[in-house]
Amino acid sequence: MQNQQEINRLKSIVQSLLDEAKQQGATAAEAGLSQENGLSVSARLGEVETIEHHCDQGLGITVYFGQRKGSASTSDLSPASIKETVSAACSIARYTSEDSYAGLPEKALLATEFPDLDLNHPWDIGVDGAIALAIECEDAARQYHEEITNSEGATVNTHQGIHVMGNSLGFLQGYISTRHSLSCSVLAQRDDSMQRDYWYSVSRNALNLESAADIGTKAAERALRRLAGRTLSTRQCPVLYSAEVASGLLASFIGAISGGSLYRKSSFLLDALGSQVFPEFMHIYEQPHLLAALGSAAYDGEGVATKTRDLVSGGVLQSYVLSSYSARKLGLQSTGNAGGVRNLTVTPGALDFTDLLRQMDTGLLVTELMGQGVNMVTGDYSRGAAGFWVERGEIQYPVEEITIAGNLKDIYKNLLAVGNDVDYRGNIRTGSILVEQMSIAGE
Amino acid sequence: MELLNLARQTILTPYGIQDGDIEKIMNRLLSSPVDAADIYFQSSHSESWVMEGGIIKEGSHSIEQGAGVRAVSGEKTGFAYSDRIELSVLLEAANNVKAIVRQGQDAHVGLVQAANRQQFYPVANPLKSLADQEKIDLLRKVESETRQLDPRIEEVIVSLSGGHESILVANQDGSLAADIRPLVRMNVTVIVVENGKREQGSMGGGGRSDYRYFVEQDRGLAYGKEAVRQALVNLDAEEAPAGNMTVVLGSGWPGILLHEAIGHGLEGDFNRKGTSAFSGRVGERVASDLCTVVDDGTLPGRRGSLSIDDEGTPTEQTVLIENGILKGYMQDKLNARLMGVKPTGNGRRESYASLPMPRMTNTYMLPGSHNPEDIIKSVKKGLYAKNFAGGQVDITSGKFVFSASEAYLIENGKITRAVKGATLIGNGPDVLTKVSMVGNDLELDSGVGTCGKDGQSVPVGVGQPTLKIDGLTVGGTSV
Description:
The structure holds 2 protein chains of 2 kinds.
Chain A: H1 2-23, E1 28-44, E2 47-65, E3 68-74, H2 79-93, H3 126-142, E4 148-167, E5 172-190, E6 193-203, H4 212-225, E7 235-241, H5 243-256, H6 259-263, E8 284-286, E9 309-313, E10 316-317, H7 324-330, E11 344-346, H8 353-360, E12 363-370, E13 380-391, E14 394-407, H9 408-413, E15 415-418, E16 428-429, E17 433-441
Parallel strand pairs in A: 7-12, 11-16
Antiparallel strand pairs in A: 1-2, 1-4, 2-3, 4-5, 5-6, 7-17, 8-9, 8-11, 9-10, 12-13, 13-14, 14-17, 15-17
Chain B: H1 2-12, H2 19-29, E1 36-52, E2 55-73, E3 76-82, H3 87-98, E4 112-113, H4 132-147, E5 153-171, E6 175-194, E7 197-207, H5 212-215, H6 219-235, E8 242-249, H7 256-263, H8 268-273, E9 293-296, E10 317-322, E11 325-326, H9 333-339, E12 347-348, E13 357-358, E14 362-365, H10 372-377, E15 381-393, E16 399-411, E17 414-419, E18 423-427, H11 428-431, E19 435-438, E20 443-444, E21 449-453, E22 456-464, E23 467-475
Parallel strand pairs in B: 4-6, 8-15, 14-22
Antiparallel strand pairs in B: 1-2, 1-5, 2-3, 5-6, 6-7, 8-23, 9-10, 9-14, 10-11, 12-13, 15-16, 16-17, 16-18, 18-23, 19-23, 20-22, 21-22
Helix pairs in contact in B: 2-3, 4-6
């Protein structure tokens, strides 16, 4: 009830922005407003370290004068500031060029159904409750083993946000969502080797978070297992990306089939629609209407209806990832992806993590990647890595200070398997991924 | 003091906030026995323009303003902020954050002006340094002249952005300090194509200056030329080598090595907590005696420079490594107090909505005595890495990466073939001990660096002379 009133209040501000834009001569306009409140509490070495009260708001508007466009944003929601912000956007539109592809989405594509996606689950934990939970989590990690010698602490985060958007085609919608997380990062030390690792859980609903004890224990186990890492000699070998880093391979894929990279011709997957990008067993799809999921939304950043749809089936690229603008540039229709993909899912295979290790037999298990060494124009890939050397399907020892390299086109074509050990903590949901062969550089 | 009054007029006057109101908020904070407290007011205006596909495609303007209130007791910090600069809101925020300390006491403080501080950049608003039409003309000129440089150019994207930020920070000792910071940036990206093969090149620059910087000395066009040169070099690049080898790093932006490999590891917070691979190593050798590395926030007009940091501390030149010996860390007030040292002017925050932390400003290595040509000549087989993209470090294990975007093979003392970009990986505490030659050609980067830490981004600078490192792992595909 109170929520609905607040959404309505923000909707009326967005409407006043759109009205003001019209007043100032804009032929079309689109505006968004968000307001977020939250609490972040961290504890370190058994005591509270920081208490942060978050309170953010911001609004943005894009105006069109025919095919010319201007944008402006502000964190000040006062009527005077709204007027000024609209003026700033209109003033910019005097200098931008006619762009025949610019403009609002086609009205027929705008979302008309707004199912309750179960995204709002406030967590009434309070400062004292959050301190206690953070301490419990960190204690679990510190007490796990005597080689856990130091800590970066544990953090409880809880946020609630209202997001409203509207355009001059009559679209005006808003929703409330929550996001809560608990994380822990600790250090392990043995002789000269010092390693840090972490674990976290994140959810729309605090009841679905992993327990503080489990998060602390996993953080400790992960830090300990990295101790006394070695480098490898330079070689070629199979690589198993653990689920928590496998999502990065998919993120590069999405970048390469996104409208912006395609119309700029800065993608290694130009003209790949309808071609075999992955092996036949790969099925990749979007599930924007999953209940209570982190990436769920009924409409995209422009108000276009989101849909459950295949991006890859039988390993063949079925669709690009497009906003209205990039779709027009490519002579296609928006796919409802202004702002990106939502709950991108790789259909899990039959093998669990242990089976994947056995299938790889001898090779590198990667659990951490460093740096941004991906050339999106060519697909050339070279990143820092850490993980474990595997022989006969068994983990042998930790490895660090190595790089893994290849070309993403080859890496995608030569995937051998996707595991069923899906990591649900992000907007990309995939199990571990086994790659046939990559170049390892080390000592 | 004119600067302070300018900042007051920009941030406080529009909201009717007087010095007396700041005293009220501070006294509310100090009614608990805190060790430190501050109130940070910020107002910033920024804009960006993008030319792409031969048209002025995007333009945007943004206003960000607000205040953050912090109380610190021992190692505990309470923090709240608001984008509403109103007395009642900030008093409520003060109530929330002082709850970090349980018992109360009485305190009173009156505001005094902080001592005058030398300014390292102009206060004028860079957004107004050119008329909007002149900004558009500049973009068009750079775009069209770049496009004509080579028939293989398929696309040119030019962006221009600027910001004008005013800050006021009141401390628990009653001092009130202000800073007004301009920042401008221009970038040119080109895509070239030859026989169906595509490559990209990118170059940009800027600093705490105004838009005329890009007109002077034709800097904007120079970025275009450099972007085209890099893209064309990469069209012909072969597979990069893989393995451990001698690496010669070019001068300037390759100084990102120092930022990642040692800079982050020398930030005070990690060292106070003992989580850095450099913790407890002051006085020890961490580099060859050819290496002296400083962090310097006082370089006029540089992207990473600040007259005062975000806690009101004057910036300085801090010696991090002198002739190979670790001399000290970069500090904010909290970590300096807890470690019993002086703050070094490195307390920075992304905005009023974030807590300050020890951060770098401009980090660079002082020049040595070798001619860069002699350094190349001394290498029988290795890699010459001239340009880099980003990097990352794990400050606990010390492992760092940085990605070359332009590199060449060195064979028998000569630069021979161009090779594709590759990630280089090493161990921070070791890498500088392998520096065997340092060039006499110190250069600072062109003004493009942005550093991320705990989700907060701040502008930084890096620099170095040409360096020879006897052994670094190069992550290519050619075994």
